[in-house]
Here is the input.
Amino acid sequence: MSAQHPNAGPLTPTGTIASTSDRRRVAFATVVGTTVEWYDYFIYASAAGLVFGQLFFEPAGEGVATILSFLTVGISFLFRPLGAFLAGHFGDRYGRRIVLVVTLILMGAATVLIGLLPTYAQIGVAAPVLLIVLRVLQGVSAGGEWGGAVLMAVEHAPRARRGLFGAMPQIGVPIGLLLASAMLALMNALFPGDAFIQWGWRIPFLFSVVLILVGYWVRRRVEESPVFAEIAERKERTSAPAITLFRRFTPLVLLAALVFAGNNAAGYMTTGGYIQNYATTAIGLDRGAVLTAVTISSVSWLLSTFAAGWLCDRIGRRTTYIIGWIAQGAALIALFPLVNSGEVVLLGTGLVLLTIGLGFTYGPQSAWYSELFPASVRFSGVSISYAIGAILGGAFAPTIAAWLQQSTGSSDAVTWYLVGMAVLGLVATLLLRDRRGIDLRPSAEEAQSTGLYAWQR
Here is the structure.
């Protein structure tokens, strides 16, 4: 064995030496990459709540156009499993790094094309059809990106700091929301009224070109995951990882998916554009002020996500989640009364309170998911669980919320729907076992395949 480099850091999960600069490069790359991916994704969701109903579905009438616009947000989730299956297969067979680069380019290209898309008034029914096609491509990309970013971060991390390193790709999500909301707020200020609706909304989509180039450059400089490198060296790559996953670990996939569903349903009140639409149309608040409030809440979401990643290395993934579910449930009960007050400051307060709970039920997810699944099917396991959870939770949460609001004439039904999803996430959390610090190497596959559930010891 070669001598340790004087600037080298602690052992990676594979037992090789990782320098501090290597680990920082990986952490930075996962943050930048997921920020770019989710900026693209959230720009669409925010625009769907603000302008897409009018631009692409106006002949359906105002109320129906809003629901159709939110449906296009949800449709992409149906294709996340396809992205997860493809990314899981190629990620477990050929490595994490190549998947990250491909998904980044696919997401960015779809986003830029949306920014160039003619409206219904210009080309008729072809406009919403093309919009849906591009949104599907975003869904495929999002379904594959997250698992690769998570495993690159966690599998490079020192064993005692997986939660903190795993929080790096997680904070890319609130940063992406922050950038998306800030860009739309800026465009709304620079191009008010009809100018924003006519073409001001397009600029944030076209700006994605710059982000793609930055993300591509950063991700190309990152080394392959040490766990996958050992899998390849040992020639233990699974030929059909998704089939193996479902044959052996179906209950685990479903429980992990429900954990994410509880978080995702509440999260998509803002990331899916529902609160933005509800606050501006039903309550009558200024669009720019609402976007500013969402931007501020993105900062609190970022901080709470990072804090939860740090904390879960000390008190465990499961305990951190339980704290988060309690905080999230309390915030959901307070959210709509604060929004319905018609005061922007109270709207912002409600969103900040919500994002604290969201951060604590999101920050530990990377580390916990990575420690739940064996090395040979880990990419497939984390990606597919995430994609299924996104469908069960966030896919149609804005659509369901809009339908409940219109059907009942009250936001109370929306509140109890979201609280019910949080309770479902809490139950799934209690049924899973905390496996903090488990050996992630391929040589520990047997231990990784047992003791998955809370009732097992």
In short: The radius of gyration is 21 Å.
